[in-house]
Predict the 3D structure of the following.
Amino acid sequence: TVDVAVPLPDGRRVVGTLSEVYDGRLVAVGYSGLGAKHRVGAWVRLLAAAADSPAEVREALVVGSARGRRPAAAMSRLGVPEDPAGLLAALVAVRDAGLCAPIGLHLDAAEAAAASFTGGSDGRALNRARYKYSKSFADPYAGLVFADDPAVKPDFEALRKAMPAVADLGAAAPLLPGSDETEMFVRLAALLFGPLLHEESQR
């Protein structure tokens, strides 16, 4: 196990214990598909470990089931970014904003947006996010929050509009990709998934 205690710019600390560390690798294994949720979880833990104990944890491995009819495994390998402490502080700031008001950042759609966003127009990124969301399963929690009914899949436009203002994002604001003209959905998606995708290799 690895204990972490990472100081944040506002004086708070991210504290916890990482139990799945083997030979300098944070390892997460699951039986479900290798989706955005599992990789983001490992990414956040890797940021915390690298910010506090860079010599103890060098990468994260996430293992899940591969797509297709035949049983197979898929693996994501995540490396440590240049500024893990800064990225961790930014994600904590996004969480803080989410505790004040719901943020409609659907993870699969956000990953699709980040993968398509190159810093210019956000139109292609939004189209990719909208398409990915249309193919996703309904989330009862999102239905309850955005449609007052856990059986309803909220419209993508409702999620897209449920975004915090830049002023509410604290330490995350200076790291937001894009410009003031870029939709916040795309900016938050690129903040969360851009560094992850840059440091990731899959097989």
Remarks:
- The mean pLDDT is 93.
- The first strand starts at residue 2 and ends at 7.
